[in-house]
Amino acid sequence: MEMSEGLTKQLNMVFGKLNEELASLSSGIVFVQIRNNVIGKFGIRHDPFETSKTRPFQGTTGLTETQRNDFRRMAIQALTHKVGWTHGEIQFEFAVRQGKLRLSITFESNYNMASLLPKFDIGGGWGGTGEREVEGA
């Protein structure tokens, strides 16, 4: 399985940009949206605090430098599982539990039906001229 070198470089850039924010978070979801094998929109989804019963936890620390480096490395390794699609989203759900980084990765491929269907002919319907009867209509 060939890993896109361009996508690897882009993912490195994403984690570089998010580094400071990850340093203040202990859980969340890093997402990257991909179109034509190029990362467009990216960011982090997270709750500002976690709760225990009805009280928020105070003083939660973010990812350490080692955890952030491990996160980046695991995210890049995960790209080897992106096979056969060029449009979609990858989500990296992370959490620090008992001092250890936990990571779950979800791939979502997207396809556009308009690119699969024949071009619509303004004069008479799909892919041809004149009207056609639909069997069983």
Structure report:
With 137 residues, this protein is an alpha+beta fold. Helix content is 26%, strand content 33%. The chain has 3 helices and 8 strands. The chain has a 4-stranded antiparallel sheet with strand order 2-1-5-6, covered by helices on one side. A two-stranded antiparallel sheet has the order 3-4. It has a two-stranded antiparallel ribbon with strand order 7-8. A hairpin with a 2-residue loop joins strand 1 and strand 2 (38-45). Helix 1 runs antiparallel to helix 2. The radius of gyration is 22 Å and the shape is elongated.
Q: What labels would you give this structure?
A:
137 residues, 33% strand, single chain, 4-stranded antiparallel sheet, 3 helices, alpha+beta, elongated, 8 strands, two-stranded antiparallel sheet
